[in-house]
Design goal:
- It contains ten helices and ten strands.
- It is an alpha/beta fold.
- It has a single domain, classed as TIM Barrel (Alpha-Beta Barrel), CATH 3.20.20.
- Helix 1 packs across helix 10, helix 8 packs parallel to helix 9 and helix 9 packs across helix 10.
Length: 285
Amino acid sequence: MKLCVSSGISAMLPDRTPLPFEESVNLAKQAGFEEFDLGLSSRLLLEEDWEQRLEAMQEAIAQAGMHIRYVHTPYDYPRSREEEDWKRFELASMRCIEKVPELGADCAAIHPRSFMKPDYDADEEYAEAVRFLRPYVETAHRHSVVLGIEIMRGAGASAPARIRRFGTDTDVLIRLADELDAGICWDTGHANISLQQQYKSIHKIGKRLKMVHINDNFAEDDVHLAPFLGRIDWQQTMKALKEIGYSGSMNLEVKCNALPMELRESYAAYMAASGRYLIRLFDNL
């Protein structure tokens, strides 16, 4: 099993000043990661030179002796409700999916369009998710791209129960993936916040599981901690992955962006070490 990491591992300074893409590549390579989960924003994919910029990112990864294993489609949704803005977001997402084969990735994660809502209508939210995702899934099928619909994060363990979000329930996620003939991306951090049982849920998903986002938290906020720094039971999570025959990479969706630059190298080394430990745990079960 290969060790993979999200491309946003070191994408910005604590004040949110963007850093060159090469910062993430160099940090990941130095820490010992072998592969990238390339996250692409609609902002980038709508630039006039988007193809050249994407080629430059691919080249930087290749020069580091790494390759792109996964892609994350855009989820920087428009802030307005204007139809034109959503059409542009759709264009960006379609560009992303169509580029997946050229990037050499095995699978692309995609979010259902969902937002935190009080007292929402479950049937209405499900129908909206199908409507939103179907064009992307159909495009993926035409281009022989595997899509993994990602489990979403809930409001948090201490939030009022009436505040809910579509895509946080394993059974609903399975129903959605089966209806659309898509795979599933299991985000351990999202699942923990959404109070899903990792072992039981992963078993339910079974062969539908096409990729994972490995990260930890305390079931309150999506902080993308490295494994063993939160409350997830990693022994049971790896046991479930082994028992269902998971064959993808150990893909850590972790970030250093809140840390001073001086601390990132040592934390990235720990991130990679924790990922390698999980691989050994998986192999020895």
